[in-house]
Amino acid sequence: MTNDTPEIKPSQPKFTVADIFNLYMDDYLESHNIPYHYEKVINDIRNCGTGYFGLTYLKCDNCGEIEITFNSCGNRHCSSCQGGKQRKWVHTQIDNLLPVPYYHVVFTIPAMLNDLCRYNEQLLYDLLFKSSAETLQQFGRDPKWLGAELGFFGILHTWGQKNWIHPHIHYVVPGGGLDGDKWKDIKYGGKFLFPVRALSIVFRGKFVEGLKKLYYKSKLTASFISQLTLHG
Fold first, then answer.
1. How far apart are CA 1 and CA 76, in angstroms?
2. Cα–Cα distance between 59 and 67 in angstroms, integer?
3. What is the C-alpha to C-alpha distance for residues 139 and 135, in angstroms, rounded to an integer?
4. Cα(190)–Cα(219) distance, rounded to whole angstroms?
5. How many CA within 13 A on the CB side of residue 108?
6. Cβ 154 vs Cβ 132: under 8 Å
7. Strands, DSSP E only, in the chain?
8. pTM of whole model > 0.90?
9. pLDDT tens sequence across 148-192
């Protein structure tokens, strides 16, 4: 590792998200219903930088030159607003990197549960985070694999690259952890942090157990919930 921070140049797409919404969203909404908070996000993005959110008026005291800029929406889902924040965040993470290998670990759920997720977003996304994080911690604490406390961060993605619903979490995990005040390197190593098959089995068990508890406590909402069969 070096202390040099790579230059991050923002890409310039041919079309923005706002362009796509402006071109197609009205037709889409004629035949589809979406939650109110989705509508608010779409409205914010469509009107970002158009004057809808007001403007900023600057006048130089010396020369009298005037500069007028339209305010942005500030919505956390707006790529135009968040681009600068994203680059700043990336630089911060680079500065915090440890001089060890890092691993990319992804946890996802079966496609048959996608519709259930849409009706129970907070419950199932919380369960997805809880089950996956506990799985990583369990493997990290096992002396067979590491015998230390792992540190990691995860990011939830609810859609896939082809714009279909596909809830999954990306984790970035350093190749080691703390045993008391001492650092321990990962034992398994190589291409994968831990054995993929073993991780999958433990994660599936934790997720299904959590799903059963939600089901039997009648916390899940969906018209087809009575048809759901849970297998251990």
1. 32
2. 6
3. 6
4. 42
5. 13
6. yes
7. 55-59, 66-70, 102-108, 153-159, 165-174, 176-179, 182-185
8. no
9. 999 998 999 988 766 678 899 999 999 999 999 999 998 876 788
